[in-house]
């Protein structure tokens, strides 16, 4: 498929991509999942989602569309992100024949918030993310997949959540792409074990909803330093969406989010949990990742394989964390591998990690 021209990125997104997505989009709301291992919420609220119908997209006769329905893909995005950020990726999935369903995680986008500060992300229990994504996939996702396969695309935090769903719901997804998944987060130069102990203490003192020291509110200023080597056109477009939409300005972790992210990490890496995974996985790793740690991703791959699971491991050594923000020559390879995996038979690579 032809990638969006970086030199005309804003124009093509505005004139071609966004109108087409709007024409095949369904907006909806879902009640949060209830699970025996989760406490009841005083104000459960509702979770926002966007779904894109491949049949309606095909009616638009866009250039490059396969006009072959392949199923549905559920997108589970990363920390402080939103559904709009994935517009370009959604466009490519639709061109390849997939309907796409995107749940906005609790505390993100237009979904319910549990803290007054709109810049802060808080969650009471990591299992809530997992239960909500599982419910969304088995209700909304399967409806869009029909009698065709349902895949998962999980990035960063959303990839960590997705990995936990694969461990708890081994037959829910047919295939899963985990792109730089948060098997373990980077904790500002502090070892994860130290950060875990410190966050437990702070939360125990009643400061779990406070913004982590050093984390900042969204200001509208764009610092390109963390994105060196990425496509500036893509990064600036993503940033502009946040500037234009107040609901997209989450920017900082709470102490309780850090605590739960590290609890999630320990659960994902449990060898018995890894052995429960049956879904074939394509895992991508970025060599210049500053947000999630590479070695826990490697350990996850080894433990899933040791448990009998199938994982294809691909490393992009010169990529930043958001591989989908890289220039077109990198994306051509990245998306080529994604669609070869989703569209074709599962053939494990003889790779190392």
From TrEMBL:
Keywords: Hydrolase
GO MF, one example: phosphatidylcholine lysophospholipase activity
Oxidoreductase recorded as keyword: no
One Pfam family matching this protein: Hydrolase_4
InterPro entries membership: AB_hydrolase_fold (IPR029058), Hydrolase_4 (IPR022742), MAG_DAG_Lipase (IPR051044)
Domain Serine aminopeptidase S33: 70-324
EC number: 3.1.1.5
SUPFAM superfamilies: alpha/beta-Hydrolases
Name the UniProt record assigns to this protein: Lysophospholipase L2
Native organism: Bifidobacterium pullorum subsp. gallinarum
């Amino acid at each position: 498929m032809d990638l969006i021209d970086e030199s005309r990125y804003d124009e093509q997104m505005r004139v071609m991509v966004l109108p087409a997505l709007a024409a095949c989009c369904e907006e909806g709301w879902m009640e949060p999942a209830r699970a025996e291992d989760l406490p009841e919420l005083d104000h459960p609220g509702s979770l926002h989602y966007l779904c894109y119908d491949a049949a309606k997209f095909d009616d638009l006769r866009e250039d490059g569309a396969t006009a072959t329905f392949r199923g549905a893909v559920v997108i589970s995005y990363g920390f402080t992100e939103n559904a709009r950020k994935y517009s370009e990726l959604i466009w490519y999935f639709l061109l390849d024949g997939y309907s796409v369903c995107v749940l906005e995680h609790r505390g993100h986008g237009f979904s319910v918030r549990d803290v007054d500060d709109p810049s802060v992300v808080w969650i009471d229990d990591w299992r809530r993310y997992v239960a909500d994504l599982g419910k969304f996939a088995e209700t909304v996702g399967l409806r869009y997949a029909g009698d065709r396969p349902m895949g998962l695309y999980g990035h960063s935090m959303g990839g960590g959540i997705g990995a936990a769903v694969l461990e708890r719901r081994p037959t829910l997804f047919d295939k899963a792409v985990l792109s730089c998944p948060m098997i373990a987060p980077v904790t500002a130069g502090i070892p994860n074990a130290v950060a875990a102990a410190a966050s437990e203490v702070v939360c125990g003192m009643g400061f779990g909803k406070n913004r982590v020291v050093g984390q900042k509110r969204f200001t509208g200023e764009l610092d390109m330093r963390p994105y060196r080597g990425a496509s500036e056109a893509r990064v600036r477009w993503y940033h502009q969406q946040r500037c234009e939409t107040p609901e997209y300005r989450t920017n900082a972790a709470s102490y309780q989010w850090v605590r739960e992210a590290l609890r999630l990490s320990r659960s994902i890496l449990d060898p018995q949990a890894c052995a429960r995974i049956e879904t074939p996985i394509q895992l991508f790793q970025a060599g210049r990742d500053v947000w999630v740690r590479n070695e826990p991703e490697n350990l996850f791959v080894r433990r899933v394989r040791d448990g009998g699971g199938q994982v294809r491991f691909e490393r992009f050594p010169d990529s930043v964390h958001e591989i989908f923000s890289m220039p077109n020559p990198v994306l051509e390879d990245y998306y080529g591998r994604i669609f070869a995996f989703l569209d074709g038979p599962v053939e494990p690579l003889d790779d190392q990690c």
